[in-house]
Specification:
The structure is a single chain. This protein is of the alpha+beta class and 336 residues long. Among the domains are: 120 residues, Serine Threonine Protein Phosphatase 5, Tetratricopeptide repeat; 73 residues, Sandwich (Immunoglobulin-like). The N terminus is likely disordered.
């Protein structure tokens, strides 16, 4: 986990922070400085944010959020000593700001002091994202040491905070290993948008492959093999399987590379779907349609351009239709 993993959570916890903070005076100059500072903090402009948080502290030395967010600035910069100092000052002013315990826990976790980290994490309420992250981390440790039952218990605790991806990833991982691939996909896809774990893509590929859903498997294997952070052994497996699937999809028995660039599809009931073009490495080139569509027979024609209107290079591309039944691929040869 990166030290600044919770930047993405800041908008979630700020509301709770201001709601419960004994020293929050929403109409005060200090509060106004903090609100303005957060607009910079949330976009990574930490120098400007720090100036405003210090102005808040100068305007009201007893305003706890000013100390809290100065602590956040120091933490994301790696100065954990000063970060903890400001966090503890904030807690001295307002001991109801329980998310601060989670950020102090992060400091000890990154320093390898698991016992102290857990001590602070456990002071977080179950609706705080730190609680979910703690149990995801403990679950991964249990999983990596072969204690699957303990891992499952920890991942299930992480699911208490449903917007955090870790619980879904952990449960999906265990279900994939158990051979329960449909259930694995359900959890892994729930985690996919926000996950920082590259292996999630691998396990999605493997789960789809085991279910015989080759188009999805191919696209995920290609995605995984292109990741710089991919595990070397798993990457070799992903590349080998993707190459085999590519041969089957583009040169298999009965396959003809389309040169009409027309994607026909039948909609049996009103549904949401997307239609578009991938390149041979599984990267999205262009979306031709995305949205709700009524029952009927349809065709869409690709003009050989990408999302910016530029004509693509010659080569093999994959037209796709993605709906609630899965992904269908149509190999095309662009040679114009």
């Amino acid at each position: 986990m990166k030290r600044d993993i919770f930047i993405g959570w800041i908008l979630v916890v700020v509301g709770a922070f201001f709601a419960g903070c004994a020293h929050t005076r929403s109409g005060s100059p200090a509060a106004a400085f903090v609100r303005e500072g957060l607009t910079f903090f949330n976009t990574g402009r930490f120098d400007e944010a720090a100036i405003l948080f210090r102005k808040a502290n100068a305007a009201d030395p007893y305003y706890a959020p000013a100390y809290t967010f100065l602590g956040r600035i120091y933490q994301v910069r790696g100065d954990t000593y000063r970060a903890e100092m400001f966090y503890r000052k904030a807690l001295a002013l307002d001991d109801t700001a329980t998310e601060i315990y989670g950020w102090i826990g992060d400091i000890y976790w990154e320093d390898g002091d698991t016992a102290r980290a857990v001590e602070f994490y456990e002071r977080c309420p179950s609706d705080d994202p730190h609680y979910a992250v703690l149990h995801y981390r403990l679950g991964m440790r249990a999983f990596q040491s072969g204690r699957s039952r303990t891992a499952r218990e920890e991942f299930e605790k992480a699911l208490v905070f449903p917007d955090y991806w870790g619980g879904h990833y952990g449960i999906g991982l265990l279900k994939a290993i158990d051979g329960r691939f449909e259930e694995a996909i359900e959890h892994l896809e729930a985690a996919e948008c926000d996950s920082t774990e590259p292996e999630l893509i691998y396990w999605l590929a493997k789960s789809y492959y085991q279910l015989g859903r080759e188009p999805e498997a191919y696209l995920y294997y290609r995605r995984y093999s292109s990741l710089e952070t991919a595990d070397d052994e798993l990457k070799r497996e992903a590349e080998k399987t993707a190459d085999e699937l590519e041969d089957k999809i583009t040169r298999g028995e009965g396959v003809t590379l389309d040169t009409s660039y027309v994607i026909p599809f039948i909609v049996e009931k009103n549904t949401d779907l997307s239609v578009g073009i991938y390149d041979i490495d599984g990267r999205l080139v262009k979306t031709l349609f995305r949205g709700c569509i009524t029952r009927g027979d349809y065709t869409l024609t690709w003009d050989g351009t990408d999302a910016d209107g530029n004509v693509v290079d010659h080569g093999i591309y994959l037209g796709f239709v993605d709906d609630d039944r899965g992904i269908a691929l149509r190999p095309m040869l662009w040679n114009k």
